[in-house]
Amino acid sequence: MARLAVGFGVLMILGRLREGVPVLAVVFVVSLVLPISAESADVLVPDNATASSYGTGWRCDSGFREQEGECLRIELPDNAYLEDNGYGAGWRCKRGFKEVGDNCEAIRIPDHAYLEYGSNWKCNRGYRPEGGACVEIAVPENGYLKDSDYGAGWACIYGFKPNGDECTQIEVPQNGYLTERSNGRGWECERGFKANSGQCVAIVVPENAHLSAAGDGWACDPPYKKSARGCRIR
User: Fold this and answer.
1) Which in 8, 140, 169, 183 has the greatest CB count within 10 A?
2) Do you find a cis peptide bond into 223, omega within 30 degrees of 0?
3) pTM for this predicted structure
């Protein structure tokens, strides 16, 4: 077929030359025709495929996948949809289903849960996952639910701290105050006092000294230096 196209081009050139058409114009026209004819002759497009708009390639139609030079129909299982991404099985499972072999099986969602994304589920607020189920979180007195997927799922209100499965009141000593931290002892001493055996003891500031910036100790006034007996000039 390509040889016939070339012969046809030669005859076209001879005919146009006899009519007085310039040689360059005839050659330009034939050069546009011959490559296309040659390429078209080389392209063998299989069934269920479409030739590329450029070059000599082709591509399988939607719903088909290339295999050994042919375009075979993609076998779509129940509860799936086509996905033309050029790789993989060519299909994906619908929401609420997960791929198991060549099938799409329904995702089992336990009570008090909802489908989050993909094949994952999440327990409703007030429940936590345990052994493939969602069990209710037991919130103790003076506690509240936390929006968290880890830990006990609850926290104590201000002024209480967790103690096992309960919330016990924080005992704040004199000259102390509650802190926002739920861990530790839950209180700090006022400025000028320091914690000692569960109490807030007054800091004794020696002569030529002052309370530290943190308020829980003291420092010597310059040029005095701290010693075992207080502040002295060395």
Assistant:
1) 140
2) yes
3) 0.54
